[in-house]
């Protein structure tokens, strides 16, 4: 519940001032009532004849039914991938492989509008985010890795880069199409074939990608896309003819996968959770930093593994930053994800809403000072107001554990040594942000923070040329850039 106190005329001005609704049209999208499995270039019914529904978390409406793949279906997909690997893909010259990957990239661009709307409907993220971030970045990943397909010898001079075989890829619900692109593009560029499983709450853009792949003329079986929940994922991981497992998702499932592949010849990369420190020094450009904090935790509902979910503010500017942050939170538009003005969309699922609500309760019970923006929430669907916890202690669960929601835990600090110690004192190490006017401070911190990605004076910026991945319980292996080729090659 909001405990908003109005703090002077600025807030009143913003809260009285409203945008008219500007919903993106969904007339142009095509969705089937039912989706089968994309195996060996064709749509195949699941052998168990089971389907499950995917919903729009903003309206709770059912969007479509998708197939629940069992072990036999997983086996068929892996066999198709194996046969395509042996017969066509591994033998094809890199420049020919590249042409297919470029074609997929262009087709994603051509269908960008449709893909963004479906991404927003199936997962709840704002249309602004899917239109401006997810879909363009998905296309650019395919473009980028298409360029490497015939240049692997230059990427690794004096080595003999060879593909691994069949890659089993399991992805989460926070960036459904983008994660599919992160996984499929480098695998194909390196000459591997793929069995990919999207998350059960957000399968639709991966199935649309299957349509694109079919239209692109990619040889049958090179990419197979199958749907299902954890059991289907486990069947991919455990299949004896899968050579490489690539997973993005929770640390718990990451642990299960690591155990499952131990003692086998399978290669594995895991991109797991995070609890990033966003660090604001007294000499930072405060307005930009406040925008960076908001971008880091509230946009995309905090459903970002690298979300800046822990804020560290240097004492001298703490009051100012918190005041400006509360002002900014008050202006955030929470609601219909298809509305182009919306900043914060719907929480991805009822379960995730429950997880976030529990953490908010834990935060309150732990004695932290609680603050939420005062916006109204839609009557239907899963929504959470942008939330702050102030005066939290380092050992508090809302500081130590990944919440994966729009909930920010704020701590203050005095010295660089203190903030490095606190920032590193968690099980995760995926990302961090540093805001300061001094280049020397940035370099001092980037060397000492145990995080795979560190942004300076910006946050959540992605580019296909730049590697991404974690330390500690955030997983291992890198995606993006030249580094992102390594998990798909033996050298
Ligand atoms: P999850 O890790 O269960 O799901 C991710 C993917 O793994 C899905 O495709 C799922 O079907 C699959 N999966 C589930 N069990 C599996 C198994 N035993 N073997 C193989 N694949 C399996 O994540 P969930 O339950 O949706 O979210 C729980 C928490 O995980 C979130 O609250 C968040 O903290 C974290 N998370 C982190 C993500 C990241 O990007 N690092 C993404 C999504 C969730
Ligand atoms: Mg859905």
Describe this structure in words.
Helices cover 40% and strands 17% of the residues. It folds into two domains: 34-272 and 474-490, 3-Layer(aba) Sandwich (Aldehyde Dehydrogenase, Chain A, domain 1), CATH 3.40.605; 274-456, Aldehyde Dehydrogenase, Chain A, domain 2, CATH 3.40.309. The chain contains 16 helices and 22 strands. Helix 3 runs antiparallel to helix 5 (127-148) and helix 4 (112-123) packs across helix 5. It has helices at residues 9-16, 71-89, 94-110, 112-123, 127-148, 152-155, 176-189, 204-216, 230-238, 251-261, 286-297, 315-331, 350-365, 397-400, 416-424, 439-448, and strands at residues 34-35, 37-39, 42-44, 51-55, 62-67, 162-163, 166-170, 193-197, 223-225, 244-248, 267-271, 277-280, 310-314, 369-372, 387-390, 407-413, 428-429, 431-435, 453-456, 471-472, 475-476, 489-490. The strands form six sheets. It has a seven-stranded mixed beta sheet, sandwiched between helices. Strands 9-8-7-10-11-21 form a six-stranded mixed beta sheet, with helices on both faces. By secondary structure, the protein is α/β, with parallel strands linked by helices. Magnesium ion (MG) is lined by residues 54-55, 122, 201-202.
Q: What is the class of the largest domain in the CATH system? A: Alpha Beta
The CATH architecture designation of the largest domain is 3-Layer(aba) Sandwich
How many helical stretches?
16
Low-confidence stretches: 1-9
CATH superfamily of the largest domain: Aldehyde Dehydrogenase, Chain A, domain 1
Strand order of the largest sheet: 14-15-16-13-12-18-19
Bound ligands, named by name, code or SMILES = 1,4-dihydronicotinamide adenine dinucleotide, magnesium ion
Would you give the CATH topology of the largest domain? Aldehyde Dehydrogenase, Chain A, domain 1
- The coarse overall form would be globular
Main β-sheet description: 7 strands, mixed
Rg, please? Answer: 22 Å
């Amino acid at each position: 519940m909001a405990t908003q106190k109005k703090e002077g005329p600025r807030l009143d001005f913003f809260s009285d001032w409203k945008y008219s609704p500007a919903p993106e049209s969904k007339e142009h999208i095509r969705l089937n009532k039912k989706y089968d499995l994309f195996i060996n270039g064709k749509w195949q019914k699941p052998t168990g004849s089971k389907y499950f529904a995917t919903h729009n978390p903003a309206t709770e409406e059912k969007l479509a039914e998708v197939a629940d793949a069992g072990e036999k279906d997983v086996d068929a997909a892996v066999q198709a991938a194996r046969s395509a690997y042996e017969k066509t893909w591994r033998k094809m010259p890199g420049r020919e492989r590249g042409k297919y990957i470029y074609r997929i990239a262009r087709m994603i661009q051509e269908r960008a509008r449709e893909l963004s709307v479906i991404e927003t409907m199936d997962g709840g993220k704002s249309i602004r985010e899917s239109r401006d971030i997810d879909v363009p970045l998905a296309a650019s990943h395919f473009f980028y890795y298409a360029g490497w397909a015939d240049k692997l010898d230059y990427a690794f001079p004096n080595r003999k880069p060879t593909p691994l075989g069949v890659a089993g890829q399991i992805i989460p619900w926070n960036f459904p199409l983008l994660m599919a692109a992160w996984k499929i593009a480098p695998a194909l560029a390196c000459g591997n074939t793929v069995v990919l499983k999207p998350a059960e709450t957000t399968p639709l853009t991966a199935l649309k990608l299957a349509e694109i792949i079919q239209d692109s003329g990619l040889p049958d079986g090179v990419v197979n896309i199958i749907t299902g929940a954890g059991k289907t994922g486990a069947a991919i991981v455990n299949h004896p003819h899968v050579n490489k497992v690539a997973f993005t998702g929770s640390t718990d499932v990451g642990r299960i996968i690591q155990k499952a592949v131990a003692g086998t010849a399978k290669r594995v990369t895991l991109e797991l959770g995070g609890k990033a420190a966003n660090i604001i020094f007294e000499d930072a450009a405060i307005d930009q930093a406040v925008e960076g904090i908001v971008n880091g935790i509230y946009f995309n509902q905090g459903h970002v593994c690298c979300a800046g979910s822990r804020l560290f503010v240097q004492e001298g500017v703490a009051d100012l930053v918190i005041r400006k942050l509360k002002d900014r939170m008050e202006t955030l538009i929470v609601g219909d994800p298809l509305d182009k003005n919306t900043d914060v969309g719907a929480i991805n699922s009822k379960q995730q809403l429950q997880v976030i609500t529990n953490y908010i309760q834990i935060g309150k019970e732990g004695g932290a000072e609680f603050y939420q923006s005062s916006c109204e929430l839609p009557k239907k669907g899963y929504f959470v107001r942008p939330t702050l916890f102030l005066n939290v202690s380092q050992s508090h669960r809302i500081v130590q554990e990944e919440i994966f929601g729009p909930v920010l835990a704020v701590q203050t600090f005095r010295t660089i040594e203190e903030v490095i110690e606190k920032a590193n004192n968690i099980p995760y190490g995926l990302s961090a942000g540093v805001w300061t006017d001094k280049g020397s401070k940035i370099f001092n911190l980037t060397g000492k923070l145990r995080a795979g990605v560190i942004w300076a004076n910006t946050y959540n910026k992605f580019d296909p040329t730049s590697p991404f991945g974690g330390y500690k319980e955030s997983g291992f292996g890198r995606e993006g850039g030249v580094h992102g080729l390594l998990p798909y090659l033996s050298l």
